[in-house]
Amino acid sequence: MEKLAARDALDPVFRIEAGMMAAEHGVAALEFDPGTVISAFLPIRSEIDARPLMDKLARRGARLCLPVVLDRTTIVFRELVRTAGLVDTGFGTSGPGPDAVVLDPEILIIPLSVFDHQGGRIGYGAGHYDRAIARLLARGMSPKLVGLAFSVQGVDRVPTEPHDQPLHGVITETGYIDCKGEAVAGTAGGNTGMKDN
Q1: pLDDT tens, 123-170?
Q2: pLDDT confidence bin for 180, thresholds 50/70/90
Q3: Would you call 133 helix, strand, or coil by DSSP?
Q4: Fold of 2-93+116-159
Q5: CA–CA dist 40, 77 (Å, integer)
Q6: Is 61 strand, coil or helix?
Q7: Cα angle at 24 between 59 and 155, to 5 degrees?
Q8: Mode of pairing for the β-strands spanning 63-69 and 75-79
Q9: Does residue 142 contact residue 181 with C-beta atoms inside 8 Å?
């Protein structure tokens, strides 16, 4: 896939800087009360590093959690506590162990392979996030969905299906893009958006 190849080709120093710049844009754009449950992710392959953003969110009082793959169709979100170690959670990921508290996130920071300004997102094909979001909606929740990616992953339009839940926004190293296409908290150059993971 062209956008993943472009992501793979990014300079290692730029990757570090991009993660820090995205963190600045993300923490400025996201509004939440202390104690709000926010899920993020640890990077795999060539994904942007969400850890600088997670650190800033925690300092503002967020209760963080990470996705953990239970099986081929299901992820849950386990609380991330600084004093607790991480374990191998499959598919190249790591996260809190089975003793960690399972939480329902109110804000989901979501990895992706491609996005657009309309909130379209393409994930990695397993549909884990689609199903997790559907479960939260079925419980009467209205989670805020925010993609996190490098700006090179943006396209003009992502094809969507009826079950796809659009992103509310996308964080990149160039800024925060709300999915009405208006850039805030930065100069959000490049294209951005969401479909499923």
Answers
A1: 887 788 999 999 999 999 999 999 999 999 999 999 988 778 899 999
A2: low
A3: helix
A4: Rossmann fold (3.40.50)
A5: 9
A6: coil
A7: 130
A8: antiparallel
A9: no
Q: What is the DSSP letter of 154?
A: B
Task: Label the pairing between strands 114-115 and 121-122.
Answer: antiparallel
**Residue 154 to residue 121: CA distance in whole angstroms:** 9
Which residues are registered as beta bridge partners of 65?
A: 39, 79
Q: Which of 186, 121, 124 minimizes the C-alpha distance to 148?
A: 121
To the nearest 10 degrees (0 to 180), the angle between helices 51-59 and 12-29 is: 30
Instruction: Report whether 193 contacts 120 (CB < 8 A).
Output: yes
What's at 184, amino acid-wise? V
Q: Which two tokens stand for residue 59?
A: 């300092």
More confident residue, 108 or 180: 108
